Amino acid sequence: MNWLKNALSKLPHPIRWALTMFLGVALIIAGLIMIVTPGPGLLVIFIGISILAFELEWARELNKQGQQGLEKIVAKIKSVFKRKP
Q: How many structural domains is the chain composed of?
């Protein structure tokens, strides 16, 4: 994602904002379609929100909450597999 952020930072603000909104919304819509069709829908939605987080505060907060939730899930899975009878 850093390469995308660096590429977008070189553009003027109105163009950067429009491009970010277009990419983010397009990925979210594609992810919603992939939920009912074969494909990684939730992953694409998460990537779309991450792109929107470059410009929108609510998307940053949602992205942060999603990452924290994912970290909790991974920690729980690790604890389950570390247990030995």
A: 1
